[in-house]
Amino acid sequence: MKKYSFFFFFLLSMPFSFSQNSALWKGYFSYNEIKDLFQSGDKLFVASENALFYKNTISGEISTTNTVDGLSAQTISSIYHSPNFKKTLVGYENGLMIVINEKDKSILNVVDIINRALPSNIKRINHFMEYNGIVYISCDFGIVQYNLSTLLFGDTYFIGDFGAQISVAQTTIYEGSIYASTKFNGIRKADINNPNLNDYNQWATVADFGWSGIETFETNLLSITNQGNLQKWQGNSFVTITSLSQTPLDFRENEGFLIVTTLNHVYIYNTSLIQIADINSSQIQIDKIQFTCATISNGSIYIGTLENGIFRKELDTSIFENILPEGPVRNDVFAINAKTKNLWVVYGGYNQFYNPYDFYSGPTKFSISKFNKQSWLEIPYEELSEARALSRITINPNNENQVFISSMYSGLLKLENDVPTTLFNAKNTGTDGLTSIVGVVPDDVRVNGAAFDKAGNLWLASSLVKKGLKVFKANGQWQSYPLESVKPSGVLNFGSMVIDKNGTKWMSTLNDGVVGFNESYNNTFKVIKEGLDAGNLPSNDAKAIAIDNRNQLWIGTRKGLRVLSSVDNFLSTNQLNTAPIIILEENLAQELLFEQLITDIVVDGANNKWIGTADSGVFLVSSDGQQTIHHFTINNSPLPSNTINDIDINGETGEVFFATTKGMVSYKGTSTDANENLNNVYVYPNPVRPEFTGTVKITGLIDKATIKIADIEGNLVYETTSEGGTIEWDTTAFGKYKVASGVYMIFISAQDGIETKVKKVMIIR
């Protein structure tokens, strides 16, 4: 188990154009996958997958920048810092370039390359090289000039034969000429002062085949082939100095050293081109570590890795220091649980057809992450009893230190006080417990949805086996239930599970709709499927289910949304039927989230619904679905991806967490869970000042409390009933007009009238 000390990072404050207030957002990004790094003065600039961090090599201070600060969540490919212009350039695989101004912390998104009429797969930015205030940007189609003074693009050089688009890996200036190493078309050379460099005829080919990089090192011009042959320019041709055993990944010079990085080696050469160091990945006591890039600063070598951040060592020592901002292990977060004071994270998983073999090329071996508001804890795969394809997190409501992790390959993993204790599978749960899939490897036990009932029993949905509905009872006994009444084969592929107030278990499935079961009613199963007479779902592929504060069952499918009017219908109706939510948009009646692939539905303390989608971001809709309160996407919020894997809410704080394929962020929601009494009712902001444009929040409420707001003379201006722990007032008189300045009385009473509370709020217009 790895535990990292917590740094209070100074987050760079950078203005951006999101319509939502960035102060309401937090980023929970992984900085493990290092794409590039750049050393300038006493600062190390590091680009991870889709976020940046910076280390002061003198003070050791670390700071970060991510989507909450205005950074794009696209995949980064290169980074460069100009000390003269105090600007940092970030290049992306899709051609986006971001300019960060060190002086005012502003972020400029430069989309010129993205918008060029070129194939999208050749816009990758590979390298930046500055010369006389002009940055020469190496791309997969050629070279582009960028002026650091004017922040404008100049000429574009298509330097292939007859002006063809060819992939340029790196450029350098040597003896008045610009040299470009190309990935497949040799090395090209031209006079740097030639005003017609956009004419391909001005470029001469000085070497053939493919080259990974080129650098000016002291008085030498050096280049390296795709195969790892380090070569030196000898006046009219390149000659080989040495041959490496692996393909070069990074090639650069810094502080009088030449540094070549391969998957498992960092080679360092002095000015005489004598190798003075070979740092092997085996020297770092981490299994299967892989290098990506390296540089030298003040006598220390900094090595970027594929999964483990940065490692630093002094050139004359063998001690490695791991440099890594706190965060989860990966950005592609599969499932989360934020219901307690801790945030739990797992990384999956399975594909859209619940197949763990087609997710990251096989049942994954990822670790578990936990954030306790002060530090991140990683529980590595090696300590998980080989539990693979971890898909969901279920916490015992009576003991939050007892956590169960569903595995879509290995069964059910139990953790006590952050320590994995038991892996439940077909070998240790008895004849009525977990079973392996027939005809597959013996240890393939696919547990997905799980939920605790009021008696402390843990119910499980186990896929592709007979008697797939399981219960692990509080007394340690296992029991299974056959499913032939649902489907003749009795074999289903299960998704999520929720349990309602009546003890009915509701389960989503891949192709069999939603299944309800209640053992207290003669072990009755009922199914909601496609068809007007079968349940009226838009698709039998039900991806998400949630029970709201009015006991309605909300169902998200591959092709839209449906609502069962009451879970009580299970007890009284043979065929359960759902209905769409019809809204008016531009005076036209239409179905809410029509044809949307819905990935998750979560109900907040005000009974509003947070709905995640596969490609359209997140929707927050009102309790009845008639109003869309927010629609967060990558274009109007710090959301790093429009593909939402999971959503969860901390009911105590109202913080809403979004797990996406490109990182995790949270939004400070205003709706909290209902309290047990009115002792902690709080009104904010108070007073409401003229410049404030938001709503007044009244939190700490009990469910179904009556709230009445009146002016000092007793005139009622607002009345509502809480559906959770928080309500909002827009400071209008029943929505008609803004109320005048003054003190307003807030009268709160429980549904039975026994408990009451009175608060005041002052409004200043």
Walk me through this protein's architecture:
The chain has 765 residues and is mostly beta strands. Among the domains are: 136 residues, YVTN repeat-like/Quinoprotein amine dehydrogenase (Methylamine Dehydrogenase, Chain H, 7 Propeller), CATH 2.130.10.10; 82 residues, Sandwich (Immunoglobulin-like). 1% of the residues lie in helices and 45% in strands. The strands form 17 sheets. It has a five-stranded antiparallel sheet, with no helix packed on it. A hairpin with a 6-residue loop joins β29 and β30. The N terminus is likely disordered.
Describe what is shown at a glance.
The chain is 1% helix and 45% strand. With 765 residues, the chain is mainly β.
Q: What kind of sheet is the major sheet?
A: 5 strands, antiparallel
Taking Cα atoms only, what radius of gyration do you get, to the nearest Å? 30 Å
CATH class descriptor of the domain at 332-467: Mainly Beta
Largest sheet: spatial strand order: 1-34-33-32-31
Task: Kindly report the average pLDDT value.
Answer: 93
Q: Counting H and I runs of at least 4 residues, what is the number of helices?
A: 1
Q: What share of residues is helical? A: under 10%
Distance between the termini: 56 Å
Q: Would you identify the regions where 5 or more consecutive residues have pLDDT less than 50?
A: 1-20
**Could you please say which CATH topology of the domain at 332-467 applies here?**
Methylamine Dehydrogenase, Chain H
Strand segment count: 65
Structural class: mainly beta
Q: Which homologous superfamily in CATH is the superfamily of the domain at 332-467?
A: YVTN repeat-like/Quinoprotein amine dehydrogenase
The CATH architecture of the domain at 332-467: 7 Propeller
Strand content: 35-45%
Described by the principal axes of the CA atoms, the overall outline is globular
